[in-house]
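Internal ticket #5521
Category: modeling
Description: The requester needs a full-assembly model to guide mutagenesis choices. All entity lines are attached below as received. Residue total reported by intake: 569.
Assigned to: D.W.
Attached entities:
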Amino acid sequence: MKIQLAKLAHARSGDKGDTANVGLIALREETYPILVREVTAQRVKQHFKGICKGDVERFELRNLGALNFLLHESLDGGGTLSLMTDAQGKTFSTALLRMVIEISDDEAQNLDVS
Amino acid sequence: MKQKIRIAAGQGFWGDLPDAPVRQVEGGPIDYLMLDYLAEVTMSIMQKQRSRDPSAGYAKDFVPLMKEILPACVERNIRVTANAGGVNVEGCANAIRHVGRELGLGGKLRIGIVIGDDIMAKLDELLSRGIELRNMDTGAALSTVRERIQSANVYLGAAPMVEALNRGAQIVITGRATDTGLTLAPLMHEFGWAADDWNKMAAGTIAGHLIECGAQCSGGNCQYEWRSIPNLANVGFPIVEATPDGNFVITKHEGTGGWVIIPSIKEQLVYEMGDPHSYITPDCIADFTTVRLEYEGRDRVRVYGIEGRPATETFKVSISYSAGYKAVGTLVYSWPEAYDKAQAADRILRARLDRLGLKFDQILTEFVGANATHGPIAGAPPADLPEVQLRVGVRSEDRKAVERFTKEIAPLVLTGPPGVTGFAGGRPKVEEIVAYWPALIPKGEINPTVSIIDV
């Protein structure tokens, strides 16, 4: 079944220059492997099409059940150069939570989200 | 040696809740108060202030704050670490000395100052010796912006602050120092941690990272179950309660709002994170993939298991330079067909800017209420929104072009689509852009020095 990340994770985002970072945190430990499988750097790049003009890097933090994404060239130059309302990338977190991923029926049942 | 130290965060940035440090001092027992005032662009603002007034150039708010809390700090031996000195650390310290004397604290108060972060005066000498200070993000040579540089400061680490504390300073004032160092230094001083005990350096650094954004780790901006967060009106700022072994608990004062829970801690851990294996500071490389968390009671999360690696051979330099001008104008369009009207107004505005032949490096249009935060990811907005704000920004090296743009916004009210308001603020302001240039410099080039001032 398809499910929106907002049901499986929470997140916080911020900036370093023209790069936005999004930390995606599994709401439950069991969900983390699903995030690792589904929320790849490539899919995040696709999700932020038109916003992220550079590469997307992904790092795994198994200890926190979290993934960290770096979205390069995403903030219109970043910092004071940027004209964007969200020049600091603060709402990239919730933008990522809009992503819809695929989970199996078993997973849905185990997570009680079916 | 004390077996437990409580370090309280009082400011997450310059302009955070003014009474937060006061409530940290008065709300319960603490040993240290750390105050982070310097964002990346703050130094250039302070440099400008100092060029107009040689006695300015530091975080002015720090002075009345200290006036309010100094008597309690002296009475209860609460020590303060603050990077409030900006580009005029001595000026800041003099102001605090003056306040201390006014309060009758003569002979009872010692201030330590850390200087040596400002390399503005020796930039050309460094460049001439082949220290290129290339932009860490773009690789560009500093010579491309040399004439436009406004400030250049090294991010100093904990070491000079530790020296100031060791020499008995109750208040340590720095210029450009890392926010993590403001927390790590008290731990090194109290527990006698060696500067090459990398796991402990990493633990103190991550403790600093967790509290450096103030309430953002204790319920503020917390996405997890946000509706359930108690009493944010009286949000408690975070406190690190550390032990000599390098482990610590994040907590907050009893009776305050917000919450310290594992999800709020995780959210702050990943904030502004790069490669989590290598969080680089002047003091160490901290590995965020080693952090372990567990509950130790209500509003108490224990953080342990942290590992670190040796510090690098370089300091990071924060250089600011003038990068042209910008302005942002807004108007609000109301139902019916608010979004269509705002889009039409944008087309009209752009046609007029074109006709004027103005050159901009960038024009950005956003529709607040439809796409300003999530852009195309938000999809098409619901039909017939009650209102939409048109927000247009421009950027140019040419100040005149930006000024001309600011005169084109309000006229849209009488010369564009109907149902528009929200122009009462007058013309948008033209802002000078001060941009940020991160670079690296060999540590051997920098000699931080500590001075002691007795009140």
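Resolution: model delivered.
Comment from assignee: The helical segments of chain A are 32-38, 41-47, 92-97, 105-111.
Ticket closed.
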